[in-house]
Amino acid sequence: MELGLLIPGLVDDVVGEIFHQFIAVDWEGPFLLMLVSKGWRDLVLSRPSFWIWIKIDDLQTDWSEKVIIGQALSRGLLLQVVVRIPFTHFDDISELLSRCGSIILDTSTHTRIHTGESGPVTQELFDQREGYYQDVHKEIVQTLSALSLLDLPIYMESLDGASFAYSTWTISERVRKEKTLKDQFQDMPLPLITRLVLRNKDKPKPQRIKISTIWPYLPSMPFLKELEISDNFMGVDRVSDIDYITLESLQRLEIDCPTHWLSKAPFKGDPQISLSKNGLRVGLFGLLHRLQAPLLHTLSLIGYPNEIIDTLTSVQGFCILTLEVSLLRLQELVPQLLLGQGNSWHPLCNYMIKIAQIPKNSPLEPVLGVLLSFAPGGCQLRLIGDHRLKGYIKSIKSTIDVIKYSRQSAMGIEAYEVQYQVPLSHTQGQTFPSEYMLDVTCIEMEEAPLDDYDLWKSTPERLVLTGGSYAGMEVQLCEMIHAGTLTSLDIGDSFEAGSVIVWSHIEFRLTALTSLRCITDDFLVLAVPLVMPQLADLTLTRPKNLPDPRSLQPLISQRGCFAKLVTLRFEEFPSPWSSVFEYIIAFRALGTDGGVTTIELPGQPHTSIVSQLVQVLGNELEEFDVGQAPQVNGPPGCVACLRSGWNCFNATTCTRFLASQKVSITKDTYVPESD
Fold it and tell me: DSSP state, 16?
């Protein structure tokens, strides 16, 4: 059906004309389409020029026409669809669903509405309206079943919050004081639960309950995607307590089990182990032997090395893509666990090993050696630990992707994080010369390392410096900034790191550097010691008051700096805008490759500013007219709106830039026409 036949005279120009006049200047939040027709008020405009929100209610006779118009005016953007429950025409909107970014199920008008109340829905209130909620839950379950094949985030909302009050449950000791856990599970709308957390944060040594109390209820949760179980809440006392179950939708499982009960012997049928009257005692990890989860892709285990290694050795029936292992502390390995190692989890893509405590003389290498044997070739590894981990870093014979270093200045506690890919074969690692040097792609430091000579001697391709305490490290820092290797330098959050480079009185001719991120106030100062002939991407942080851009011209003309700069990025809205225009003109004046062609901003500025940015990027701007938006009576507006040219009436309620939406502007960016 043609768009013009639905609403006579409604053409695409209405986006740039009517809505710019009524919204772009002084309107906060979504705009309901009442200017064209009151009967179409559910077609929501989220941002000037584009429809991306559509509410569908099949009680309205023209709901399908609204879908067609919403798609036509969305300009290809991902749609956010609100579906009123109940809804029985999903087959008719299959094309629309293929373009969705998310779906919201609205139950606020499902049956009679309870108003005049605020706050969360209590158990007492839930019991009083049991019939109403059962009706709502039934419809939601049917809707979820219809949408189960879509790989989209699905949310639920209601006028009083009742329909989703129990979709995510956290069970704790505090809740169990009024009802038994069994009673609570009987009261829950099990089909609505998508995430279940069984943990106790109140008592360090609470009285645990048997897993058999809740284990039979889990299969009644068809949409359960995340399950977290802690040993401080419940445990597995006997093998006979565990039944075999299948969780069809489970995607992530976390088990926190700080116990010393091994489960290998019972499930291996070891005749040397004597059975007690009611079966063998096992830890909470024993649940994995009685669980089937075809969609499970993330497994997180928290405990001690013996128990975790035992579990990983005997449980390999899952198709795990991400494995997270957190060791509470190191311990000597049980000898039998060292036998038969080396069977890697072939589907594994991401593997994290975190060690909370590495005491002196603790067996780090043997434990890591066994744990790493589960990683197949090509798997991305992530190791986290304290200063003792740096000794293990030297044994890595492949290129390290990232090394992160941090230090608590008061305590002097160092922390390392290492990320690298397991070689596809044992012979793929490098052979290092007698003088060892780290082969690392990226180094991120929050503080200057105390005595890590190997880290200072490395020459990374990307260097990120944050925090402070770099004083006295001028020589080491200068050695790390290798002229022919460093392609990206990020000092955007550290005043001290920039000062160390400036006061080192060393000229760095960074011939390979293509990306720089720094604080705006330090930009022109850093441009003196740093010669960057290949710089193509410049990010300026905290651009509250841009320095005088006229200082750029002698740097460009005398030293050839910024000759290839293409992208200028601001992480906050800059001020004043006239300086931004002058920066672009200065960069373009002597740029051998055409100068800056793209400006990236943290949000959508006012159309008047966008128009001038487009003109200056196209060498068409002659005069600047970028006065700040006028102040209005009432509460002061938010800083982001004022800097980006919008009127803002209340800083506490403004939602214009609530979500981070980066905007790239070029000379070809479309600008709606306005008077």
Answer: H
